[in-house]
Design a protein that fits this description.
The chain has 168 residues and is mostly helical. The chain has one domain. Helices cover 49% and strands 0% of the residues. The protein has 4 helices and no strands. The chain is elongated. 21% of the residues are buried.
């Protein structure tokens, strides 16, 4: 029951007086969205903040061990979101690293060293960021498509129903 109450409280509209009273009641506030993103970047469940969500470096569990959030939200191409985030972060690291090195070492840029360092970074960054990219995309997805009772597997040992209090 505690997890269900937490889930419901997470998606209440902000009490900020500047927010329009006609806004969507399922819309997340800025601080709630930032919390989801921060949890995702740390490889935690964006919904409850608990972990671990991975059984090894590349294998994500099916549900969060704490709140039973289904970590693959049911689309056959769901992996593309994490892949895209991973690609963008890796490319940004290479571009920013190369640019910073050129700016700080100009006019005597060590071109050979820079080339090999960026190749190394280009290979290593996606491997190291992979788990964070998957959970970060889950957080982005929860921001864009708010949680529904169907996104919860239910308590361990349950036959897939939502926790009490959420309704079906």
């Amino acid at each position: 029951m505690g997890a269900a109450c937490y889930l419901l409280s997470m998606f209440r509209p902000d009490s900020n007086p500047t927010v329009d009273s006609q806004s969507d009641p399922g819309q997340l506030g800025l601080s709630q969205a930032a919390t989801l993103l921060f949890r995702g970047i740390r490889r935690r469940c964006p919904n409850c903040g608990h972990g671990p969500l991975f059984s090894n470096w590349v294998k994500m569990k099916e549900t969060c061990p704490n709140c039973q959030l289904v970590l693959d939200r049911g689309e056959h191409d769901y992996f593309l979101g994490g892949y895209t985030i991973n690609l963008i972060v890796a490319e940004l690291l290479v571009v920013l690293g190369g640019t910073a090195t050129m700016v700080f070492t100009w006019p005597d840029v060590p071109w050979t060293l820079l080339t090999w360092a960026l190749v190394f970074l280009m290979v290593l960054a996606p491997v190291l960021f992979y788990p964070s990219a998957k959970t970060l995309f889950l957080a982005v997805d929860l921001i864009l498509r708010p949680l529904t009772p169907g996104d919860l597997a239910g308590p361990p040992g349950d036959s897939g129903s939502a926790p009490p209090g959420l309704g079906a």
